């Protein structure tokens, strides 16, 4: 009887400790996630609110990560489509757990741009064999927009979307990159 009681007591203590440990882990993860997010749903909603006057909005709730990073903590993709549905701007919102993970992904991102030579962080270029890309980079997040060279969008509409991306997503010390069709590439 005593050994049975001792056995049940040990199991109870083990279960109690494991439950408390799980609570501590989930609580600390939630606090970290809430306190460090650079991209949030409110900003995306505000950005969409600005864009919906000029474009039809389509959300991709399960976008494919172009770089397949397990350190990604947030990824959302939206498509802005012109009224005639001939032109689409694809915008990715991506955030990573650490600055180191972000820098690794940033390196892959820059290598994926252009066919002839690698894009170098902060270095302007006259020619880049690439589709148009506009990107905003922060400490752990990147927001980038891609679209086709062959489009009939008014230049002002594209510049308006770029200005709104900067307005809603450029955090202190954020950097932007703008590549026109075939170049030039400019950093700000």
Any overview of this molecule?
The chain is an alpha+beta fold and 188 residues long. The chain has two domains: 36 residues; 150 residues, no CATH class. Helices cover 40% and strands 23% of the residues. It is built from four helices and seven strands. The chain has a seven-stranded antiparallel sheet with strand order 1-2-3-5-4-6-7. The relative contact order is 0.14. About 16% of the residues have low confidence.
Low-confidence segments: 5-35
Give the strand line-up of the largest sheet. Answer: 1-2-3-5-4-6-7
The topology string of helices and strands comes to HHEEEHEEHEE
- Radius of gyration based on Cα positions: 22 Å
Shape: globular
How would you classify the helix and strand content by structural class? alpha+beta
Mean pLDDT: 77
Count helical runs: 4
Number of strands: 7
Helix proportion range: 25-40%
Q: How many structural domains are formed by the residues? A: 2
Beta-strand percentage range: 15-25%
Termini separation: 76 Å
What's the story with the biggest beta sheet?
A: 7 strands, antiparallel
